[in-house]
C-alpha cells in the first residue's frame, strides 16, 4: 500500500511537476508511487522502448516504491467510464492517503482529461457492491501540481521549498532525453534551463532558491504552524 499516489498523464509529468516533492516525501519515510496514465508515445524522437527505459531510469533516481502504467491512449486521453473504473481499481488496491494530479486548467487536453478522470475515480474507489478489485477506499485529498504546458501564472495554495532536491529532480527529468534534449536547441536557454528558471521563480516567491507550486480544490489543514516558512 502507498501513502501517496502521483497520477501523471504521461511518463515525465510527475518528474516535471513534483519531482522535488516526491524526493522529500520519500526522505520523510512515506511510500510513494506514480501511475502514468499513457505511454506518452508517439513523439518525434521517442518510442515505446526508449520511453520505458527513460521512465525506469527516472524511477530509480526518485526512489519510488511503485510505478505502473494504466495503458490509456496518448493524445486522446478521455475520462471515460471504462478508464474511471480502471483507475479506481488501482486506487482501491494501492490505498493511498493522498492523490496528486495535474492542475485542472492546462493547454494540453490530456492533462485536463487526466484531472477530471482522477477526481471521478477517487469517488468511484469508495463504492461498494462492485466488481472492481480491492476494498472501498477514499483518499483524503487530491493535491494538484503544475505542468509545463500551463502558460498562466496561477496563484498556488502553497509553494514547497525544493532547493535541496533540485539537482536530483533535474537529473530525473534529464533521463527523458528523447523528450527534452534530442532535437531541441542546445544554445541557452535550453528547455532544462527554462525549468530551472521557473523553479527559481517559485523559490523567490517564498524566499528560497527553488520551489514547486501546488494547489487544492479543498481546504488544506495544518496540525501546527511549524511547517510555515
Order of helices and strands: EHEHEHEHEEHHHE
Main pleated-sheet profile: 7 strands, mixed
Envelope shape: globular
Question: Which range does the strand content fall in?
Answer: 15-25%
Class based on secondary structure composition and strand pairing:
alpha/beta
What does this structure look like?
The chain is α/β, with parallel strands linked by helices and 229 residues long. It has one domain (4-215): Rossmann fold (3-Layer(aba) Sandwich). Helices cover 38% and strands 17% of the residues. It contains 7 helices and 7 strands. A 7-stranded mixed β-sheet has the order 3-2-1-4-5-7-6, sandwiched between helices. Strand 1 (4-8), helix 1 (13-27) and strand 2 form a beta-alpha-beta unit. 41% of the residues are buried. The mean pLDDT is 96.
Keywords:
single chain, 229 residues, alpha/beta, Rossmann fold, 7-stranded mixed beta sheet, 7 helices, 38% helix, 17% strand
Question: What is the fold's blueprint, element by element?
Answer:
Layout: E1 4-8, H1 13-27, E2 32-38, H2 48-62, E3 66-72, H3 81-94, E4 98-102, H4 109-124, E5 141-145, E6 158-161, H5 166-174, H6 177-180, H7 191-205, E7 211-215
Parallel strand pairs: 1-2, 1-4, 2-3, 4-5
Antiparallel strand pairs: 5-7, 6-7
Helix pairs in contact: 1-5, 2-5, 3-4
Amino acid at each position: 500500500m502507498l501513502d501517496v499516489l502521483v497520477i501523471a498523464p504521461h511518463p515525465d509529468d510527475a518528474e516535471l511537476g513534483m519531482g522535488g516533492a516526491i524526493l522529500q516525501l520519500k526522505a520523510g519515510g512515506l511510500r510513494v508511487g506514480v501511475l502514468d496514465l499513457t505511454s506518452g508515445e508517439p513523439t518525434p524522437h521517442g518510442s515505446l522502448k526508449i520511453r520505458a527505459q527513460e521512465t525506469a531510469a527516472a524511477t530509480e533516481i526518485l526512489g519510488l516504491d511503485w510505478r505502473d502504467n494504466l495503458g490509456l491512449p496518448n493524445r486522446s486521453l478521455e475520462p471515460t467510464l471504462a478508464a474511471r473504473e480502471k483507475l479506481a481499481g488501482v486506487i482501491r488496491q494501492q490505498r493511498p492517503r493522498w492523490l496528486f494530479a495535474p492542475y485542472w486548467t492546462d493547454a494540453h487536453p490530456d492533462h485536463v482529461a487526466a484531472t477530471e478522470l482522477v477526481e471521478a475515480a477517487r469517488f468511484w474507489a469508495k463504492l461498494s457492491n462492485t466488481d472492481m478489485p480491492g476494498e472501498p477506499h477514499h483518499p483524503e485529498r487530491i493535491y494538484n501540481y503544475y505542468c509545463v504546458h500551463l502558460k498562466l501564472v496561477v496563484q498556488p495554495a502553497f509553494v514547497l521549498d525544493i532547493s535541496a532536491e533540485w539537482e536530483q529532480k533535474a537529473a530525473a527529468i534529464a533521463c527523458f532525453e528523447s523528450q527534452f534534449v534530442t532535437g531541441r536547441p542546445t544554445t541557452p536557454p535550453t528547455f532544462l534551463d527554462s525549468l530551472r528558471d521557473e523553479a527559481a521563480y517559485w523559490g523567490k516567491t517564498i524566499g528560497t532558491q527553488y520551489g514547486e507550486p501546488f494547489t487544492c480544490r479543498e481546504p488544506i489543514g495544518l496540525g501546527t504552524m511549524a511547517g510555515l516558512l
